[in-house]
Write a structure and sequence with these properties.
Helix 8 links the parallel strand 16 and strand 17. The two termini are about 20 Å apart. The protein has ten helices and 20 strands. The chain has two domains: about 280 residues, Zn peptidases (Aminopeptidase), CATH 3.40.630; about 140 residues, Aminopeptidase i, Domain 2 (Roll), CATH 2.30.250. By secondary structure, it is of the alpha/beta class.
């Protein structure tokens, strides 16, 4: 199970590849892809299918033995985007000596200093001319070698660097791509890389490339560390580890009366207000179509929502041994201590006493320890998927996640045991 997680993390440098990897495993397990532009058709118990939106969010369904109206649905939701840097259009900036750097903009809220002096690469999608203007073709690219680096300024020019430095997103966070060796490369280094990568599968002409969504990604593979290999180190643990735990549980759980749903959204790190984000009505629409196909009435959908339960799975803050003053004195989860239920008096999380009790009992039945997180009252926390999804689906549910260190760093740290615990708890939930 751990090996599968590490492979998934390495195969998912950005959202598009995460969706591709999840879809491949779903299809291997007997799920078939539906085109939401087509009629849904008849829906029978045991049917397994999935849909995607924007190639960057994915929603899997296993239809239960009972209808949605009679049994509702159990949904695990997570997100596949992570803080990074997006490559701007007209990105190449040629400097003295022919050194080329790329113009970038920040995506989400990364800890920017963690991106310095490490091998980086590019991943994302390229839009290629299709049969007509409304039918372009999407091609994915992931340069599987160290390609770029954002280099620090030497301490000799910045003696105060260890006292704290304010970083400029426009000046300091531009990665070096290479050195042009002839005039034909000037202004073309990035495009040459794109053409080379696409050509490995199917050549494409420069004139047919219309646009791209490309991002920086850590080029160092995911790994374990610690004296007992008890820790996980990887980029994008938040929130790909929850995505994969949900997938593992969905595929491992037996048939049930209840319809099982795995919803992996995009753009959580930028507010979720996109067609592929948790603020979109897309998932609610699909569930309504399933209810109508089963029962012929929209009333069945509203009944299903009232019978449903949601697990909003987004990683939690683990207690940091160097910064204990930042944590609540009585509610600070530790690495290896099991899944974490998250609470917030300002309702930034969906958890309340009733929904937390449900998840804690599921953990007990699965033989899994369970922890609780509440922010230190003087430290503001973030928000997540649960309440945003509730704007279109007023679900009873809980916000939880595995504890990790260095959330939003280029590389985050988790515990191997917590991943195994979480899969067991999720499997019990789907049962």
């Amino acid at each position: 199970m751990l090996t599968r997680l590490l492979k998934f993390l390495d195969a998912s440098p950005v959202n598009f590849f995460a969706v591709k990897a999840l879809a491949a495993q779903l299809e291997s397990a007997g799920y078939h892809r539906l085109d939401p532009r087509q009629p849904l058709g008849a829906v029978a118990a045991g049917d397994k299918f999935y849909v995607t939106k924007n190639d960057s969010s994915i929603y899997a369904f296993e239809i239960g033995r009972k209808t949605l109206a009679d049994a509702g649905f159990h949904i695990i939701c997570a997100h596949c985007d992570s803080p990074t840097f997006r490559i701007k259009p007209n990105a190449e900036m040629t400097c003295e000596g022919g050194i080329v750097k790329l113009n970038t903009e920040v995506y989400g809220g990364p800890i920017m200093a963690t991106w310095f002096d490490r091998p980086l690469t590019l991943a994302g999608r390229v839009i290629v001319r299709g049969e007509d203007a409304l039918s372009p073709v999407t091609r994915l690219i992931h340069v599987r070698r160290p390609l770029l680096q954002i280099s620090n300024l030497a301490i000799h020019f910045n003696r105060e660097v260890n006292d704290g430095v304010k970083l400029s997103k426009q000046k300091d966070m531009l990665p070096i791509l290479g050195i042009i060796t002839n005039e034909l490369e000037r202004g073309n280094l990035l495009m040459n890389i794109i053409l080379e990568e696409l050509g490995k599968e199917q050549p494409v002409s420069r004139e047919d490339i219309l646009d791209f969504d490309l991002y920086l990604a850590d080029a160092t593979p995911a790994c374990t560390f610690g004296v007992h290999d008890e820790f996980l180190s990887s980029g994008r643990l938040d929130d790909l580890s929850m995505c994969y735990a949900g997938l593992e549980a969905l595929l491992a759980s037996p048939a049930s009366d209840v319809t099982k749903v795995l919803a992996i959204f995009d753009n959580e790190e930028t507010g979720s207000q996109t067609k592929q984000g948790a603020g979109s009505p897309f998932l609610a629409t699909i569930l309504q179509r399933i209810a109508l196909a089963q029962s012929g009435t929209v009333e069945a959908f509203y009944q299903a929502v009232e019978r449903a339960f949601m697990v909003s799975a987004d990683n939690a803050h683990a207690w940091h041994p160097n910064y204990s003053d930042k944590y609540d004195p009585t509610n600070h989860p530790v690495l290896g201590g099991g899944p974490v239920i998250k609470f917030n008096a300002a309702q930034k999380y969906a958890s309340d006493a009733a929904s937390a009790a449900v998840f804690a009992e599921l953990c007990r039945e699965a033989g899994v320890p369970c922890q609780r997180f509440v922010n230190h009252s003087d430290v503001a926390g973030g928000s997540t998927l649960g309440n945003i999804l509730a704007s279109s689906l007023p679900l009873r549910g809980v916000d939880m996640g595995n504890p990790i260190l260095a959330m939003h760093s280029c590389r985050e740290t988790g515990a191997v045991a917590d991943h195994l615990y979480c899969v067991r708890a999720f499997t019990r939930f789907y049962q």
